[in-house]
Design brief:
The complex is a heterodimer of chains A (179) and B (462).
Chain A: E1 4-11, H1 14-26, E2 33-35, H2 54-80, E3 84-85, E4 88-89, H3 93-124, E5 144-149, H4 158-167, E6 172-178
Antiparallel strand pairs in A: 1-5, 1-6, 2-5, 3-4
Chain B: H1 18-30, H2 35-61, H3 76-100, H4 110-131, H5 158-189, H6 195-204, H7 212-245, H8 257-283, H9 292-323, H10 326-337, H11 341-353, H12 361-364, H13 367-394, H14 409-432, H15 438-448, H16 450-461
Helix pairs in contact in B: 1-15, 2-14, 3-4, 3-7, 3-8, 3-13, 4-5, 4-14, 5-6, 5-7, 7-8, 8-9, 8-13, 9-10, 10-11, 11-13
Classes of the chains: A alpha+beta (179), B mainly alpha (462).
């Protein structure tokens, strides 16, 4: 079995990490991932992360919520058991629409928000009981960890990657062999 | 780079590093509780216990044990409901609307303000549920199939809108709050050495690792949830106000209610945030994070919303006179000069006059003065709801049924009990959760920390 080697470049500043990622990119070296205590703005395009589509999902969950509210109010108030409340009979859904707006709005927000959060947990694969996989516990405190897989960058020498990391301000470089 | 930072007041005081932020925010979770904390927790849990006993008595005997009578069928219960829901609104305003406006000062206070929202909504929801009388069939308010009763729920009723609004508001606030908490739980998790603590915070943090993709999704979710919560929070108190506005009771039947209630809610909510935070910064030693700059900004929002509320009171008076409707005119005359004049004028003093003191910079930038005024506003806003509800009801169209409302010991016990429940939950939160959104705060440390901003200005002098 071939050994899979991983290099972790540890930084103590987010801007230094971005600069380093840019330097690596110009050499054609692929950064596998970055672990940081807070979001680093401007990093995603450098290391080739596509913008998330979660908000599109939220929109469609919202549409689903609106439609379910429309169906629910129509079925319960107009179709299944129409009632004459206070001399205001329920003839058509459109006629009663003003009274249905609040519930429709709330259900739209409910479905969009919860649908999006559930999708977020699923695509991020985070749930109670999951083991964290950040390589260094300091990456949720004050360190910014860049992960470079040597097997992603076969054309470049390991030595060279480490030199770039060191020259661009990495305070610590660790290696790990994945079995 | 951002140039404006050097002229703004720093939002984080002291010479802080990222690690120092982690230390400061983890300290309340890891350290031992001090005496003051234990005393506060004992008092509030005893109050909560008393409230639970009054609740049990109400359930066992029926709502006849409250002071309600034939004429005043809504009193303290709905007053407390509206008061608590209103308090909750500040949390969402801070976390959602200020996020959309990119106000950075929100970051030190949003976590605890959102916690306040959730606990306040829990307290609020207890009242309508209790008022149903038969609490074990409370789920009938949801649109369930016919075999549970005989009919569907009525979508024309503002009370049903309330069911939708409050349940959406509570659950959405809860997930919004928890989404933000996950990375901060991970921060606490990664520094634990005791296996039990490590295990608890591993579960709470959902295995968050802080990879680039996770953060990118995190930011998207925060933004969209803020965008959804902003109209939601406005809709919730609008719908609460419609419980009154869609009726034909003089003093309730007004179109001004939705904006008036929403601004009143934000007004009272900010007062409660200030009350809580001014205690919390002392008890948990967060003086460097909740600074006088934060307090001053919140006080400015109190002036704004307090003035809107004041204008609304005067508009109501004017419109009741201008409408020419004798019932409407009498309702307001009775409020100001009738047997409940003291409630009306307490409301006017606490809500309209006291917040105007914040026009003075000395008062606005003083912790003690702010704390005292925030208590006044809390009291005033409770009276506002009491005045709206009880004075409109106690003298109805039929003078023979005119009466007064006298709260029973159960009414008082339940109200004090919810205050106890609220503070107990908040105190437990303060010692187990990261009370400040530390990951967000780290992202602005370089632009708003005291050491960094001063070094920027030094650099400018060259």
């Amino acid at each position: 079995m071939s050994t899979k080697k991983v290099i972790y470049g540890i930084f103590d500043d987010d801007h230094a990490l971005i600069e380093s990622a840019k330097a690596l990119k110009t050499k054609g070296i692929r950064v596998a991932d970055v672990f940081s205590p807070f979001p680093i703005h401007g990093l995603d395009p450098v290391i080739g992360i596509k913008p998330t589509r979660l908000s599109n999902f939220a929109f469609w969950y919202g549409v689903f919520g609106t439609l379910s509210a429309v169906w629910m109010t129509w079925y319960m108030m107009i179709s299944d058991w129409p009632m004459n409340i206070g001399g205001k009979p329920s003839f058509t859904w459109l006629e009663n629409l003003p009274a249905f707006i609040p519930a429709t709005f709330e259900l739209t927000v409910f479905c969009a928000a919860h649908g999006m959060v559930i999708s977020y947990l699923l695509v991020n694969k985070i749930y109670p009981g999951r083991k964290p996989h950040n390589p260094d516990p300091r990456s949720t405190d004050d360190k910014f960890v860049m992960q470079i897989n040597t097997f992603d960058n076969k054309r470049v020498e390991e030595r060279e990657i480490m030199d770039i990391l060191k020259n661009t301000g990495s305070v610590e470089i660790n290696e790990k062999v994945l079995s | 780079m951002e140039q404006h930072v050097s002229i703004r007041e720093p939002l984080i005081l002291g010479d802080k590093t990222y690690h120092q932020l982690t230390e400061d925010i983890s300290r309340p979770v890891e350290g031992k509780a001090n005496r003051l904390y234990k005393i506060l927790l004992t008092i509030s849990s005893l109050l909560a216990l008393w409230g639970v006993m009054c609740f049990a008595y109400t359930i066992g005997t029926g709502i006849g044990v409250w002071g309600l009578n034939k004429t005043v069928g809504w009193a303290w219960d709905i007053t407390n409901f509206v008061w608590w829901v209103g308090i909750g609104h500040a949390g969402t305003l801070i976390s959602a609307i200020l996020l959309l406006f990119r106000q950075r000062w929100r970051m030190s206070i949003n976590r605890s303000a959102e916690a306040m929202t959730i606990f306040a909504v829990i307290c609020a929801a207890l009242f309508p549920v209790m008022h149903m009388g038969r609490v074990w069939v409370a789920y009938w308010v949801f649109p369930l199939p016919n075999q549970f009763g005989s009919l569907w729920v009525n979508f024309n009723s503002p009370l049903l809108w309330d069911v939708f609004a409050i349940s959406t508001y509570f659950t959405v606030s809860l997930v919004f709050w928890y989404t933000g908490l996950i990375p901060d739980f991970a921060t606490i998790r990664d520094r634990q050495v005791k296996p039990m603590m490590k295990k608890i915070y591993t579960i709470l943090s959902f295995g968050w690792s802080g990879s680039a993709k996770q953060w990118s999704r995190f930011e998207e979710v925060s933004l969209v949830l803020a965008g959804l919560s902003a109209p939601l929070v406005l809709s919730v108190h609008t719908i609460v106000s419609m419980d009154f506005a869609t009726s034909v009771i003089p003093g309730w039947h007004t179109t001004i209610f939705p904006p008036y209630f929403v601004s009143g809610a934000i007004f009272s909510g900010f007062a409660m945030v200030l009350t809580l935070l001014l205690i919390m910064r002392k008890v948990l030693h967060l003086e460097d994070y909740i600074t006088i700059t934060h307090v001053e900004l919140m006080n400015k929002i109190i002036i704004l919303t307090g003035s809107i509320v004041g204008v609304a009171y005067l508009t109501e008076l004017f419109i009741s006179w201008y409408s020419g409707v004798p019932y409407e005119q009498y309702a307001f005359l009775n409020r100001a000069t009738g047997p409940y004049w003291w409630a009306y004028w307490s409301m006017m003093t606490c809500n309209v006059i006291t917040p105007q003191l914040f026009w003075f910079k000395k008062i606005r930038k003083n912790f003690t003065a702010t704390f005292i005024i925030s208590i006044f506003v809390n009291i005033g806003m409770w009276f506002e709801r009491f005045v709206i509800i009880v004075t409109s009801l106690h003298r109805d169209y039929l003078p023979s049924s005119w009466t007064m409302f006298h709260p029973s010991f159960v009414d008082i016990g339940i109200f004090l009990g919810t205050i106890g429940i609220f503070f107990t939950l908040f105190l437990i939160f303060a010692r187990t959760f990261p009370v400040i959104a530390v990951s967000e705060l780290k992202s602005i440390l370089k632009s708003t920390g005291e050491n960094q901003t001063s070094s920027v200005s030094k650099h400018d002098e060259h």
